[in-house]
Specification:
Elements lengths: L1 H13 L3 H4 L2 E6 L8 E4 L5 E4 L9 H13 L4 E5 L5 H4 L2 H7 L2 E6 L8 H14 L4 E3 L5 E2 L5 E7 L2 E2 L32 E6 L2 E5 L5 H8 L10 E3 L11 H7 L3 E4 L9 H9 L5 E6 L14 E3 L9 E6 L4 E5 L5 E4 L7
Parallel strand pairs: 3-4, 4-5, 5-6, 11-12, 12-13, 13-14, 14-15
Antiparallel strand pairs: 1-2, 1-16, 2-3, 7-8, 8-9, 8-10, 10-11, 16-17, 17-18
Helix pairs in contact: 3-5, 7-8
Length: 341
């Protein structure tokens, strides 16, 4: 009888671990009010955080990341990837590191933007980074996260030379491409990642600029198609070109916008024009997007003053996945995409 009680106790104790043991990739698009922070937790339990949002605001963004980590059942960030050195992406590093242990740091290297504001963000970031293991990433590199593949497709203004596995198709939208005015700062140097778990694929390109997207999308698609697109540069008009969206052919997009930051009408229209898009989820209702905003169930924070609700994704290796709004627990299931990925 004692052995039976012990066995029953062990089985019951294992129940909370079943979602992770079932082998799912979990993604948390965290509301940092128009900045960027996305947490990836592999089935192995290893974690990768891409960007940390802003500093200040009473540690608002660091506390929201900590809350998402707790919800994910993790107590440390194994890999912290900083896409570039703007305050809405790298500003919160020091505050976060004071709340949660961070393992390894990854970035694109030196700061390319010489203004005092960006320089200050970089110096504060570097002061924390220099006390940790650190790796500079470039096109073709990977971030070692057990259970998923994380490939760098662009960084420091350069794109991968050869297409990823399964990519390389001619992009018919390239004939209509028009460059925009160049950005001399950090955005064109942003790290851009493709995350793969079985047949499930995610594009997370930070703030990669329109003209640098072109090198990934044209004349051939070097990236391939994805199931989930974490919209680039918060959905601003200087990223998310029609050529890039057609190349990625996303089934679902999550826009990491704020009420008045990102969510541009131009970016939203480009996504809406892609006939293969099933849904656009938004961290905030976009005042600029107007009628192009999604139904309220798909918006984590419909009010300008918000409580920092996130959007959560749970993906299986077969390519099926679920997206959930933490504000109202509304969720949608997306079946396996037809054909190879």
């Amino acid at each position: 009888m004692g052995r039976m009680r012990t066995l029953l106790f062990l089985l019951l104790s294992a129940l909370p671990l079943l979602p992770q043991a079932a082998g799912r990739l979990r993604i948390y698009a965290i509301d940092v009010e128009g900045g960027k922070s996305t947490l990836y937790v592999a089935p192995s339990g290893e974690s990768m955080l891409v960007d940390t949002g802003y500093a200040g605001n009473g540690k608002r963004d660091a506390l929201r990341i900590q809350a998402a980590a707790k919800a994910a059942g993790i107590s440390r960030i194994d890999s912290l990837v900083i896409t570039h050195y703007h305050g809405d992406h790298a500003g919160g590093v020091a505050q976060l590191a004071a709340l949660i242990p961070v393992g390894k740091f990854y970035d694109h290297g030196d700061n390319y933007q010489g203004d005092p504001k960006s320089g200050g963000v970089f110096r504060a970031y570097r002061a924390v980074r220099d006390g940790h293991p650190h790796t500079v990433l470039g096109p073709g590199d990977t971030v070692p996260v057990k259970g998923i593949r994380v490939e760098v497709v662009a960084g420091s203004g350069k794109a991968i030379d050869a297409p990823l596995a399964g990519a390389g198709q001619t992009n018919p939208a390239c004939r209509d491409y028009e460059p925009i005015e160049m950005d001399p700062g950090e955005n064109p140097r942003s790290l851009a990642l493709v995350i793969t778990f079985g047949r499930f694929r995610v594009a997370d390109f930070g703030d990669l600029y329109w003209n640098q997207e072109h090198e990934l999308a044209c004349p051939i698609n070097k990236v391939g198609t994805v199931d989930l697109y974490m919209t680039t540069h918060h959905g601003k008009k200087t990223s998310g070109s029609p050529q890039m969206v057609l190349a990625l052919a996303p089934r679902v997009a999550i826009m990491n916008n704020g009420p008045a930051s990102g969510g541009s009408e131009k970016a939203m229209k480009t996504l809406r024009d892609w006939t293969g898009l099933l849904d656009l989820w938004e961290l905030h209702y976009s005042t600029a997007g107007g009628r192009l905003n999604s139904p309220e169930d798909l918006i984590a924070n419909p009010e300008t003053r918000c409580a920092g609700f996130w959007i959560e994704v749970s993906a299986a290796a077969d390519g099926s996945f679920t997206v959930r709004n933490s504000r109202n627990d509304f969720e949608k299931n997306y079946s396996v995409a037809p054909g190879p990925r």
